[in-house]
Amino acid sequence: MLWTVAFAVTLLSSAAPLARAEVQTYNLTVKSEIRSPDCLERRTLTVNGLFPGPTIRIRSGDTVLAHVTNGMPSECPILPGETFLYNFTVPDQVGTFWYHAHLGMERAAGAWGLFIVDPPLGQSEPFAYDQELDITLADWYHMDEIYYGYYFLAVNGANPPANSFLLNGRGQFNCTPAIERTGGYGDLDPYKACNVSSADCGPTVLKVQPNTTYRARILSGAAQSYMLFSIENHTLTIVQADGGYTEPRNVSVLEIASGQSYSVLFTTNQAPNAYYVSVRSKWETPGYCMQATGTGQCPHLTGTLLYSSSANAVAQNAPPPSSLQSQGISFGDPSVNASIAFQKNITMNKDYVTPLTWPPTRNITILTSLGADPDSHPVFALNGIEGREPVTPLLIAEYYNVSDGIDNTAHDTYRPGDETSLLVETAQGLPVYRINGNESGMSCYGTELASGAPTESCSVLIVFQNSMVTTQQSNMAINDTYLALLPVAVPHAWHLQGHDFWVVGQGRGVYDATESPKTFNLVNPIYRNTVALYPRAWAAIMFNADNPGAWFVHCHLDAHMWADSLFAAMRF
Ligand SMILES: [Cu+2]
């Protein structure tokens, strides 16, 4: 089950190509190879021999023919040695996205790459720059991703700590034999060769020209970590979030959740020298990091931004400046509120604002919680329904009306303002929301079922409420007192397939269906595809249900997705 490949692209797609669009053909072969991305050998999933995989770059309107070949000893969906053709058109999106394996924990081992969509010929972007730098961030685990999953199940829903961080697939773990022994996982750590001379690993150096404005496209493929990125003495100006152009925002440290991307501008206007590039996780527990690094230090990548005219170079393993040290694991108000403020400061560029429909026609509140499967292993649950991957793909189960399809029995939910009857589940227990169901009274599309074409789209509000409540506790009243009793919750990164969405609000504590919407930004909210959800906090998104199909809404953290933190929004 785990050795399988199913690719997803974080894009909207349509069957209708635009005029003057081109067809772009890519051949991608996924293999399992021994590499040393941080100097310690381990099995790595490469695409065309590369980790991360080759960048796919098209123009908006193009059609992509991606022939993906499974070069691993694998099972379905793509059989070993077989090729699957992904054929889709990108109708109107522009931005920095990614393609990635979507099965099991595969993404933690590789099998992903950048997917860049440029504007159509003749269209420009709302900012200027001289050069482009493409940057991917990742956390890296010496534990094989299969064992990573077992670890997650065995340690009550806890992720194993990251061993190191990678920039463009490259990092530097201090894998001297002594460190290797204390930092390893014993039998769970199958490859231990310390290969410091490998060309795969070593200091990360970004070479730049002086007095030049760079557009850095920064994407996080992290399996778990909520990343912070900064360049010493250089202000980063955010101009794009996923596919949404933003009002320019200056930051010294970029916060980026798994699956998100940003374009930032920076100008090399400092003295010609070498400057720290810092990649770290915002929240780490030093004691927890001991297991991963063999020292009290949490993993931290310190790369170098090197001016071409500089004679200096910063040694990558030099201790980072104190301003770049880990903040420890503080999910207290100052730390979380700072992140919420960071997100709320990102608004849509005024020339690209698209109007949303308020009030929404559908209201959904999702309480993310932790439950247990029949073997008492921890799994994520949504509104008390513990997730299970469907045995039969949902659309096939629907079409043939097979027994493991969707049970239309409505469930109670636990929050005021919900439309209880939207929530149903599959026979195996996958929570499913029918946004435009075909049961009576549930269609948003009016005559859609008769004509086959939507005549009206639904405006949907989803509020994610973060808590680690267990299913057994979930019939308790949800209030601040209750949240304060919970074990430490973790950040999430929620993604909706097939749609971009407006991030209309985020807040600390418990969402209030009456008061919280008064804080919403309904004027110029950012329009993107992944939203960070912080501990003991909520996030509200809105989208137009105008792309009929079965779409996963899932957390982008690998272990959370693998442990079934997902549901599907169905509409036909
Ligand atoms: Cu999550």
Automatic annotation (TrEMBL):
Keywords: Copper, Metal-binding, Oxidoreductase, Signal. Residues 30-120, 135-280, 490-562 form the Plastocyanin-like domain. Pfam families: Cu-oxidase (PF00394), Cu-oxidase_2 (PF07731), Cu-oxidase_3 (PF07732). Residues 1-21 form the signal peptide. The keyword Oxidoreductase applies. It comes from the Eukaryota. InterPro entries: Cu-oxidase-like_N, Cu-oxidase_2nd, Cu-oxidase_C, Cu-oxidase_fam, Cupredoxin. One of its GO terms (molecular function) is copper ion binding. PANTHER family: FI03373P-RELATED, MULTI-COPPER OXIDASE. Belongs to the multicopper oxidase family. This is Laccase. The lineage of its organism: Eukaryota, Viridiplantae, Streptophyta, Klebsormidiophyceae, Klebsormidiales.
